[in-house]
Design a protein that fits this description.
Length: 164
């Protein structure tokens, strides 16, 4: 569980491809996440096409760091799932699993939110030619970190409330 205390948002990457085996391990971790009523609403696009990555990097004001990433995941969810109101929660757990596995594999990644902003969701959906039954949730740029980063300690005892 050291990845929980090591993972940081990595926005700069080496010019080096991510191996297919590592890509699959991250996707396996993502799909091992818990979900409401085990609905597993997730679908993932693993994008290595530089032209598509370039378009994704321009899809919002905050996705520019994806431009030089060798791999960008597009996390999506099925609109028709058992409990649609929980899809964003399920997807958040899934993306966090992917980020932790990326760190475990010596990779760096950054989560770039798309949902719930409909214009951004539609832009990403159009770029990857997503079918109507899917909704774009997030972009995750991924690759070998250009430099080592240290995670800050975010623990704040003042935010902990014990009821005994």
């Amino acid at each position: 569980m050291n990845s929980i205390f090591h993972r940081t948002s990595v926005r700069q990457y080496e010019d080096r491809a991510v191996e297919q085996e590592k890509t699959e391990l991250m996707l396996r971790a993502a799909m091992a996440a818990p979900s409401a009523m085990n609905q597993q609403p997730w679908e993932y696009y693993a994008v290595t096409d530089k032209e598509i990555i370039g378009k994704l990097s321009e899809s919002t004001p905050y996705t520019g760091c994806a431009k030089e990433a060798p791999l960008v995941f597009v996390a999506a969810y099925r609109r028709e799932c058992l409990r649609p109101m929980y899809a964003h929660i399920d997807m958040s757990a899934s993306v966090e699993n992917l980020l932790l596995e990326a760190d475990e594999l010596g990779l760096g990644a950054v989560w770039m939110g798309i949902a719930p902003l409909e214009d951004r969701m539609e832009t990403v959906k159009r770029i990857v030619d997503m079918p109507d039954e899917l909704e774009a949730f997030a972009l995750i740029a991924c690759g070998y970190p250009l430099k080592e980063q240290v995670q800050q300690d975010r623990y704040d005892e003042a935010r902990v409330h014990y009821i005994r």
